[in-house]
Amino acid sequence: MSPNPSDSPLILYGTETGTARDCAENFVETLRLCNLHPRLFSFDDFVFEDLSQEKVIIFIIATSGQGQMPSNMRKGWRQMLSKHLPTNFFDNTFFAIAALGDSSYVEYNFAGKKLYRRILALGGKEIIKLSLCDDQHPNGMDEGFESFKKDCITELCQMKDLFPSIETLDESKQLPPKYILRYLEGIEDGETEEMERNENKMISGSERNYVKMRVLKNERVTHIDHFQDTRLITFENATEDYNPGDVAQIQPENFEEVIQMVFDALNFDDEQLDRPFHLEKSDPYVLLPPKHILTYPTTLRICFKKLFDINSIPTRAFFQSLSRISSNEMEKERLQELADYNSLVNANFC
Question: Which cofactor does it need (predicted)?
């Protein structure tokens, strides 16, 4: 059954290092456990003019540099500051903001604070007060963000007129997968063409800014004994316009030796790894991976090389997801313990 658009709150994040996106994805999973079908975008990837049509928007915003907006929301922020915007732009919108920052900086959570004031000035109605999440807290950013999630969910559950199908949060609930693997041998020709057309339509703002270049030189400019490995990289046909101080983000890939360790641990054979498939969304509001990372048909081998962050530190949400599918009671209990914020807080005092 297709989700009802009225059950699809909008989640927008602004991030520089990925922390706000991780928090946003965590919040999306929590809303899915409440039987909602949230949409997740970076701030600049959503059409700004459409914001005023949204009934509920949750913003998760990190502060960049000296109190600046993160790079993936600066365009939208400039539009929000426009003098031509009517003062009732957000009159029909409920909103909540989780501001992520570090109180050791003078401009602590400036980005979230500025956004909060601006939305109020444009008529927005707050679901809860601005939540300031501090990385300097003894329990880290989670202390503020967990409180934000709890308070926000409590208020959303009272908004039955906007979300008629919302349910009480059940963290033991097993969610359906976001994607279905459609192996090539099981897809008819007509289906393949339709899937490829749909995949080509889904181009995000960050994807439009992606440029493929050949590396001509990669020279280390610091001494071999220096603790920092600083490089001078020369690109072929580097004709893109840029200004002093601009930053180029490079799309990484996993090292072959690390990938092989994963294959050995999971006991995957070549037939499993090289079997081509298309990804099909089980929820229309879920986004497919960007096309500059994955093109279709793809394989598990390519996903492990280009898509999966196999060196990342597992998050509590990761352990929570594993606990829902574990069939071993002892394993399930341990995974739930690792996923439980309160257990981790108590462990810090032991």
Answer: FMN; FAD
| Residue 287 shares a structural domain with residue 324 | no
User: Do 295 and 324 belong together in one domain?
Assistant: no
Q: Are 25 and 73 in contact (CB under 8 A)?
A: no
Q: Two tokens at 21? A: 């996106």
- Strand blocks (E) in 48-160: 56-62, 94-101, 125-126, 131-134
What does the buried/exposed string (b/e) look like for 15-49 if buried means 16 or more CB atoms within 10 Å of the residue's CB? bbeebbbbbbbbbbebbbbbbbbbbbbbbbbbebe
- Contact predicate 180/280, CB 8 Å: yes
The answer to whether residue 55 is domain-embedded is: yes
- Of 209, 192, 182, 178, residue with least CA distance to 289: 178
pLDDT value at 341 more than 80: no
CB atoms within 10 A of CB 296: 18
Which residues span the domain enclosing 269?
A: 179-307
- How many structural domains is the chain composed of? 3
Predicted structure pTM score: 0.82
235-275 pLDDT, tens digit per residue, is: 887 667 778 877 777 888 999 999 999 999 999 999 999 99
Shared domain for 37 and 142, answered yes or no, is yes
